[in-house]
Design a protein that fits this description.
The chain is of the alpha/beta class. It has seven helices and twelve strands.
């Protein structure tokens, strides 16, 4: 009997969940997985299986690549705030008639003792800061620092943490800390203490790797400005865990 062809899966990665999905599928001979990375991080943690680095040239380019490589299923496992890539994935999947799944870890949920201020954008978050504190722990990544570069924030001091060095413009008074999670509660407590942080700004990325900063802020009584994540494109099914995504892939 002829051996069935392997299911070809393209994972738009860059997250822990995307890497774990590739790890789960790598040992399955019935699946051939390729992970695509945007290339924005200088030294990414590479998943098993085939890896492609770089953009596709918009939704049309992604659709063309999937047709050329006979992709059977597409998984959008990009960062919860990679809204443009998620829109491109949805459009490309429709153009190429390829099923699409969004793999999104659940967002964080406020607990008793939290002092959260929910915002819809980095600009809105920046506007709240003068009323909340003077020494800001900014953990929104290296992109979008221009939102905190306004003259009305010049009196504030920022500790900016990111994996790679940010590019200007940025806050007038800042110190850059290059680091990559997972982080510990003890380490986050030490950062808050050493830098006398009195307000934290974060995106609702979810997950455990960077959550200790929220616990440290709660225990220290520090307000947290949380930027809400953009919605998944309409009509795209969502898996909350890599295991759920594996079950979806194995239906093909």
């Amino acid at each position: 009997m002829p051996v069935p062809a392997a299911v070809r899966v393209l994972v738009l990665g860059g997250t822990t969940e995307g890497r774990r999905l590739a790890e789960s599928l790598a040992g399955d001979r019935s699946v051939r997985v390729t992970t695509s990375l945007a290339g924005r991080v200088a030294a990414p943690r590479l998943p098993p299986g085939e890896v492609r680095v770089g953009g596709f040239g918009g939704p049309e380019g992604l659709a063309a690549w999937m047709r050329e490589h006979d992709v059977d299923a597409l998984v959008d496992a990009t960062h919860p705030f990679a809204a443009a890539m998620s829109r491109n994935a949805a459009e490309a999947a429709a153009l190429a008639h390829v099923p699409l799944l969004a793999l999104r870890r659940p967002g964080w949920v406020a607990q008793d003792g939290d002092h959260w201020h929910s915002t819809g954008s980095l600009a809105e978050a920046a506007g709240l800061l003068p009323a909340l504190g003077e020494r800001v722990f900014l953990t929104t990544g290296r992109m979008g620092l221009a939102a905190f570069a306004g003259a009305d924030l010049d009196a504030l001091w920022f500790l900016v943490r990111s994996v790679d060095a940010p590019e200007p413009p940025g806050p007038a008074r800042m110190e850059v800390l290059l680091d990559r999670g997972p982080f510990t509660l003890e380490g986050e407590w030490e950062l808050l203490r050493r830098h006398r942080i009195d307000v934290l700004v974060t995106k609702d990325s979810g997950g455990d790797a960077t959550a200790p900063k929220l616990t440290a802020a709660r225990e220290a009584g520090i307000p947290v400005v949380v930027v809400r994540r953009p919605p998944v494109p309409e009509g795209v099914p969502v898996a909350a865990t890599p295991d759920e995504a594996v079950e979806w892939v194995r239906r093909f």
